[in-house]
Amino acid sequence: MPIEIKELTKKETKKIILSLVNFNPVYCVMCKNRKGIVQRFFLLNVSVKNNKIHKKVKKLLMNKFGLTYYGYAEENPRVITTAKCPECDNERMEWDY
Ligand SMILES: [Zn+2]
């Protein structure tokens, strides 16, 4: 089964999994910037439950959206989140756990 990915709005994500919306990037690990970090949410047709799926999701994110890192919440691993620093384009953030 091919993996499908669809971008969600913050509002849509809130309805599915509120905890992920409250899970925010705090600062960029590369340049320590805290301002203007863009967080995005995506819905998958599968759960990120093993490494094989993780690799496929990563590839899909890269090909479709040019993103390389994502996070998710254990309670619903079908929704993933990404963030990008406007200063240096880095996608690795310190997250607010
Ligand atoms: Zn940065």
Write a structural description.
With 97 residues, the protein is of the alpha+beta class. It has one domain. The protein contains 3 helices and 6 strands; from the N terminus they run βααββαβββ. It has helices at residues 10-16, 18-21, 51-65, and strands spanning 5-8, 25-28, 38-44, 71-72, 79-84, 93-95. The protein has a 4-stranded antiparallel sheet with strand order 1-3-5-4. β4 (71-72) and β5 form a beta hairpin. The longest helix has 15 residues, at 51-65. The protein is globular and about 40 Å long. The protein starts with a strand and ends with a strand. The mean pLDDT is 95. It binds zinc ion. Zinc ion binds next to loops. Zinc ion binds at residues 28, 30-31, 33, 85, 87-88, 90.
What topology does this entry show?
Blueprint lengths: L4 E4 L1 H7 L1 H4 L3 E4 L9 E7 L6 H15 L5 E2 L6 E6 L8 E3 L2
Antiparallel strand pairs: 1-3, 2-6, 3-5, 4-5
The structure holds zinc ion.
The site of zinc ion (ZN) has 8 residues, from loops.
Q: What count of structural domains?
A: 1
Please state the CA-atom Rg, rounded to the nearest Å: 13 Å
The spatial strand order of the largest sheet comes to 1-3-5-4
Overall average residue pLDDT: 95
The total beta strand count reads 6
Largest sheet: 4 strands, antiparallel
Return residue spans where pLDDT drops below 50 for at least 5 consecutive residues: none
What small molecules are bound in this structure?
Answer: zinc ion
Share in helix: 25-40%
Overall, the morphology is: globular
Percent of sequence in beta strands: 25-35%
- Number of helical segments? 3
Structural class by sheet pairing and helices: alpha+beta
Series of secondary-structure elements, N-terminal to C-terminal: EHHEEHEEE
**Gap between N and C termini:** 33 Å
